[in-house]
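#struct-help
A.M.: can someone run this one for me? Single chain, 397 residues.
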Amino acid sequence: MAVAALVTLLMGFGSAWIAAVALKDIAAEAGGVRTVPSLALALLWLFSGLGGILMGRMAERFGTRSVIICGSLMIAAGLVLSAFGPSYPLWIGHAFFMGLVGIGAINAPLYVYVTYWFDRRRGSALALISSGTYLAGAVWPPIFEHVISVTGWRTTMLVYAGVQLVVILPLAAFVFRAPPVQPAPVVPSGGAQSNRVLGWPPNVVFGMMCVAAVMCCIPMAIPQQHLVAFCSDLGFTRTFGAWMLSVLLGTAFISRQIWGFISDRIGGLATVLVGSIWQALAMAAFLLTLGEVGLITVSAAFGLGFSGIIPAYALALRELYPAKEAYWRIPVVLMCTALGMAAGGSLAGALYDYFGYYAPAFVAGVAANLINVAIVGTLVLRRYGPRGRQGLKLATT
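D.P.: on it. Structure tokens below:
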């Protein structure tokens, strides 16, 4: 089940990387304004998060299989519409079809679905399936760069629309059966007891996690969506930029399995904190990097840092809240991560258009990351510090 979910996410998120690789090509058709393709990607992330909340409820009611099939069909429709070009067809195709009812129908429902199959090793399972996002970024950019250079970005979108249908539809039809019946909720140590979580009202902690999720994903989005263009501005070829994106996301895919192993031992919140600090340091390093070796090193370091953060949020929610609330709490936090991805990508594009270079965008990313560290650090102190009296030993369901 977890491997099938990984492949489904690999194919679903592959659709998002076409516009990222072809960012300068699409911008050239929009008068050189990079905000146009950046906004398309931002809308995709934002609406996929909103769609996750809606589709999470639909999956709970009608089953994950039906929702995944719907999502694949809508991704194909969105790619076809986006191929008509900037601006509105591209925006509508990415926002509504690829985002809201496409990736939104695949991403959050699969996070919830897979948690139902694991009691132990849940963090490792979440790390595996969430790697589909970054495996897509490692596999597809070099392929898309080659196909775009030969056939153009429009044809690439049309071809990929069919490819993802051929892979996802059979998986959904034959693999994703109903999950096991969940037992009565067992409240984990440090979780919700007497309507309190970490000593505070449950929704206060949940709200803090949502804000933290937005702030950590603003810097997370900037290199992912603008690294190809950033390398080009430094004088490197688009091929080199695509390979740097593959290095970043390939490293993220490999290291995410390590983060899953770690999160099973130290817990979700502590994993988020460590990954966020690492991400902030790597983000700052982009400001000091101009050479080829430096870019490779920093891209790999950034991939190592941020890769464990998103699945750790889902794990933390399952540690702190009853399983019966997973179907809406996990999609809401994932919506917040999508909002952060949308804000980070569009902010970087807008700052580049205003200043003419990417340094202000990286500075803004570091600032947002530090806010995230402060929020998550507070929650970690509540759980593991003297007030929480939890120590470092977790009890997980």
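A.M.: thanks! The first helix runs from residue 2 to 14.
D.P.: also worth noting: Residues 185-193, 389-397 have pLDDT under 50 and may be disordered.
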